[in-house]
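WARN no homologs supplied; continuing
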Amino acid sequence: MKLTALFFLTLLAVAALGGGGWLLFHDRSKPEIVLEPLTAFVSPSLPMQVRAADADSGLRHMAVSVTTGNQTYTILDKRYDGSPPAVEERFTLELFKIPDGEVVIEIAVSDASFARFGQGNTQVISRKHLMDTIKPTIAVQSMQHYVRQGGPGLVVYSVSEPAAKTGVQVGNLFFPGYEQGGGKYACFFVFPHNADPKTYVPVLFADDAAGNRAVANFAITAIPRTFRRDTINVSDNLINKIDSEFAAQVPGQLTALERYVRANREIRASNDKLLLGIGLRTSPLPLWSGAFRRMPGAPMARFADHRAYVYNGQEVDQQTHMGQDIASTAMAEVPAGNHGTVVFAGYLGIYGNMIMLDHGLGLQSMYAHLSEMHVREGDQVAKGQVIGRTGFTGMALGDHLHFAMYVSGVPVSPIEWWDSSWIKNNIKDRLVLPEKVDPAKEEAEDAAANAAAEKAASPAKKPGKPEKAAKKKQ
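OK structure emitted
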């Protein structure tokens, strides 16, 4: 029995070695190679990467070279231990003084098979590029930029050649610039509510197709602001509502309070990340004109209010309120603040039923906690058009509208957008806006509508009952 078992084990080992040997010797497939980015132009600093894979035998060696004229430079010559099935290498051409003109990048990758008498299968790719070492030129056309903390600024500039990427960088936030024709670009950027005024330095840049980056300074006066601090007493009614509405979004064996806190933190953070993505779904040209219209009603929570959430005398959370709450009668009509396109209309976590309108150049307006939505994604809407009704879906207890303005997914104070003078001095004097109606007539109508909305900022009331302020919690 032992001899028989040994015989079979030996047979299996021989078969395994034979099968593996057959694979190693008879593997005729070459490795796959991908070189990125796919661009006709390169520069010394352009980050490039090569990805190679061979699922059958793994990889043994990679060589990368660049040739200009009669000169060839070795960028990479690397052997791999353990025959990895896939590798990724990154490189630039900064170490080599390559003049402008045609260059050829060649990549050769060999697998770990014993094909070709142990040399393995080799895949070779070569790609021609044009070396471009000249940076584009930026000319700022807008003059002094006054930006209040929590608010936006607009810089208008020209670039000497088409930009592959351009805009303003503020810390880890990027605000794209959008071409307006003739090499002219417009870019909304933000002085974030939580930025340190002492270190706030927006950087304007433009990258050409080869990856050359030009950086330009522009005159800016950053005006610091202090925002309110508030205490929100969390009621059992709100906690129980959130526990029920968010059970699927925050699953697990949790108490109602635990689910409320997790929703307030985790769902809020997830929603805000999604809003950054929605902020990129924008028209490169402005769609709005004049000041934004304000919904009539009583102003409640304000933009950038820092809130401490207290339950039974104990603080359970802290968050910042990123919009303007307006309370009116229950299920009041919600008008569009300005002309635009619906880029989101649906349920979104703490915001409940929410509509986001795109106004172009990354500028968007949010209408949240709605009970009804009268538009769908892709619809074109006009200023003042009723798009829904107020409600208390999402993280809200009382009927109200959460109105917010965003620039490339970053929240900004709505108040400036209701101000015709601010629009004129900071936007109209720098950017050509579409004229939906006679400008003078529109400005007068906007001013009258917003003045009436402010006068109507009285406590909300339900039909047939005395006026009573609509409560809100968010």
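The chain is about 20% helix and 40% strand.
OK
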